[in-house]
Design goal:
145 residues, 10% strand
């Protein structure tokens, strides 16, 4: 009996975990304080000059409260800081500290290595096709306005 074909969301989830596991291992090996996959996503959503909590919540699709919690723990780890927003006296920007910039650079290099490893395993052509499919506009899910 053959096993049923796994659905695409399951496969995408496994692929994401493959990248997350490789990235977290590379960060740990580089001396970066331990972070969670959710914190990595928040960290990656930051603009170079900093972002507001509200903007980070929009980009990551989570609540402001969730972003605040993640920001607090990344501040405690020395990777982020909050500073006054020069464009608005009422808001504060979340931005990377020097240690956070080091971690971000390590993460970018690790992701390039992981993509290279994936290309070795599935081929450059398959990797390019995967990237193209994921970059293509999918539109809103059916039944959603």
């Amino acid at each position: 009996m053959t096993e049923p074909r796994r659905d695409l969301p399951q496969l995408l989830g496994e692929a994401r975990r493959w990248f997350e596991d490789g990235l977290l291992a590379a960060l740990e090996a580089g001396g970066v304080p331990a972070v969670t996959p959710a914190q990595v996503q928040l960290f990656a959503a930051l603009d170079a000059e900093g972002s507001t909590v509200a903007e980070l919540a929009r980009r990551t699709g989570v609540t402001r409260q969730t972003v605040h919690q993640a920001v607090r723990s990344l501040i405690a780890a020395g990777l982020l800081e909050q500073v006054p927003d020069p464009a608005s006296a009422r808001q504060r920007l979340v931005r990377r500290t020097p240690a956070g910039r080091y971690a971000h650079d390590r993460a970018r290099r690790a992701l390039r290595r992981l993509e290279g490893r994936l290309a070795e395993r599935i081929g450059e052509e398959a990797l390019d096709a995967l990237r193209s499919a994921l970059e293509a506009p999918w539109g809103d899910p059916p039944g959603r306005r």
